[in-house]
Amino acid sequence: MRVFSSLRVRLLLVVFAAFVPTWLTLIHEVGVRRQEALQRILADSLNAAELAAVREEQIIEATMQTLRTMARAVSSSPAGCEVLADLARDAMASSDRYLHFGLVSSAGRVLCRVVKEADAGVVSHKMWIRRNGTGSRLSIFYYRSPAIHRPALLVAVPLGPDSDAPGAFLFASIDISRLTRSSLSGKWAQDPATVFALVDESGPLAGRTPGQRDLADALNRTMTDLGAGDEAAVRVVRDPSGESWVCSRAPIHGRSQNAALGVLLAVPKDHAFRDVDAARTRGLLVILVVTALALVIAWIMGGRVLWTPLTHLVDATGRIASGDLTVRSRMAQRRDELGLLARAFDAMAAALEKREQDHLRAQEAIRQSEQRLRRLGIHLQQIREEEQKRLAMEIHDDIGQILTALRFDLSWIRKHTPAENPEKIQERIARMFSLLDSGMESVHRLCGQLRPRILDDLGLAEAIRWQAEEFTKRTGIDCDTRGVDGADLPAEHALALFRIFQESLTNVARHAGARRVEVGLTVEAHEARLTVRDDGRGIDPEAAVSPGAFGLMSMRERAAALGGSFRAGRHPDGGTVVEARLPLPAAASGENHTTEESGT
C-alpha cells in the first residue's frame, strides 16, 4: 500500500471522496426517475382507458340517436324493412364504425338486416335475446365476431309504442376496434415501437397496427401470469424474443352489460427509460468531467501548494541531517500554515547552526588546550627525563664513587688489621662489605630506573633486552625478546617506546597472571611498532577505557605526543596484546628492518 503513502495521492482521495455523495445522489435520482417513468406509463394507459370509455360513450349515444330515428321511421312505414335498409346504408356510408343494422323479434328471429360485411355472428342474436330478455327498453351487449375477429357492441332499442313489452328490437353492431385509433395521446402515440391494443379476458382485440396483435397477445398473457388482474397495473416483462418491455394495463369502464374491456400499453424498456438514461448519462458525464477536473486541479495545485514546498522542506531536512546547517527553507515569506512551518524550520536550522558553531569553537578551544597540555606534558616529560638523567649521573658519579672508595678503604683495613680477635673483625668487615655491595646494587638499580644508561649507550633494542632480563629475574615470568629489531631510533622515540615497554611489563606483573611474555619491535621506513603480548587472563575491554587506568593513559599519551597510536585489548588466542605505533621523521628512517615476532 505504498501508493497511498503519498500526500498527493491522499489529497486526490479526499477530493474524490467529496464527490461520492454526488454520485450516490445521482444513482438514487436515476432510480427515482425510473419509478416516475413507470408511473407515467401507467398514467398514460389509464388516460387511454378513460379516453376509450369516453369514446365508447360518444359512439353509443350517437348510435342510440340513429336507432331512435330509424325506429320512428320504420314504425310509421308499412314497408319497414325497405326503410330500414335505406337508412342503414346511409348510416354505414356516413360512418365506418357500423358493421350492420337489423330488426329482430323478441324470440330472436331476424326479421331483416343490412350487413356491411359477411358476418356469421348474427346468429348469436338469439343468445343475446335470451340473456337480455324481452323487457329491456335499451340493451348494450359486447361480443366478438368469430368470422371477422372484430370486437363489437350491439346497441338495441325497442320498436313500437309498447316499450315495456316490445315485439321487436332495432339493433346496430358497432366496431369498437377503432377505439384504439383515438384513445392514445402524448409522447407514446408518436413512437412507432409502442404497442397499444384493446384487450378483453380472452386476449387482444385490436391494435394500432395489424402486426402488433401477436406481440400484444404475448405481453398480455405475461401480464396475466405476473398477477396483473382487472385493476390497473404496470410491470416490466419480457417478450418471447427476450426483449424487455414496460407494460401497463388499465380497464375501460364503459356501459356494455357484459364487457371486460381494457387497454394494453407496452413500451420497449430502452424507449421507456430513454429520457431517464439520457439524463443519467448526461449527469454521469457532467459529474465525471467535474470530478476529473477537480482531481487535475487538486493534482496541480496540490503539487504547487503542498507537494513542492514539502519537497523543499524534506530536501532541506536531508541536507541538515547530512551536516549542512546553512540550508534554509526559502519559504518564510508565505502567509499560510506552510509558511509557519518554514519559519519554524528556519529558526530551528539557525539555532542548530549557532549551536554547531559554538560547539566547533568549543572543540577548537579544547583541541588547542589539549595541544598546549600535550606540549606542556612533553616539556615536563623532557624536563623530568633530563632531571632523572642528571640525578642518575650524580648518583652514579658521586654516591657510586664514594661507595667505591669506601670499599677500597675497607679492603685496605682488612689487609692491615692486627691478628688479635681476627674472627670478630673479619665478621664485621664481611658485614660491611655486604652492606656496601647492597648499596652499590641499589645505586645501579635506581640509576637504571631513572635513566638507563644502556638506552643512551647501546640503543632501544639492547635496553629492551636488558629490561626483559631484569623483569624475568624479579618476577620469574619468561620474557621472549627474539622479535626485537636492533635499528636505531631518534632519542625521543626510543625513550617513549622504552617507557611504554616498562609500563606494559608493570601491568603484566600486577594484573595479567601470565607465565610468558613475547616482545616485538619492528622499524619500517616511516613507522616504528612495538608489541607486547602475554598469555594471561586478558584485559577487560571496559577497563581498557576506564578513566582510572592511568598506566594505559600514560602509554596512550606518550604515543599521541609523537603523533602515534596506542591500542590495548584481548588477543584472539588469549591474553592481552599492547601495540604502539610511532611515525618516524623522514631523515631518521633508515633501512627497513622487519623481524617476525617469535611464536606467532
What is this entry, summarized?
It is an enzyme of class 2 (transferase). This protein is an alpha+beta fold and 600 residues long.
Notes on the structure:
Pfam families: HAMP, HATPase_c, HisKA_3. This is histidine kinase. Residues 497-586 form the Histidine kinase domain. Residues 304-357 form the HAMP domain. With 600 residues, the protein is of the alpha+beta class. It folds into three domains: 9-287, no CATH class; 355-451; 458-600, Histidine kinase-like ATPase, C-terminal domain (Heat Shock Protein 90). The protein has 14 helices and 15 strands. It has helices at 7-75, 80-94, 125-132, 179-183, 213-225, 269-272, 274-321, 337-415, 422-450, 453-458, 460-475, 491-512, 541-544, 550-561; strands spanning 98-105, 110-115, 139-144, 151-159, 168-175, 195-200, 203-207, 233-238, 244-251, 262-268, 478-484, 516-523, 527-534, 565-570, 576-583. It has a five-stranded antiparallel sheet, sandwiched between helices. The chain has a five-stranded antiparallel sheet with strand order 7-6-10-9-8. It has a five-stranded mixed sheet with strand order 11-12-13-15-14. Helix 12 (491-512) links the parallel strand 11 (478-484) and strand 12. Helix 1 (7-75) runs antiparallel to helix 7, helix 7 runs parallel beside helix 8 and helix 12 runs antiparallel to helix 14. The radius of gyration is 67 Å and the shape is rod-shaped. The model is unreliable at 119-127, 130-138 and 587-600 (pLDDT under 50).
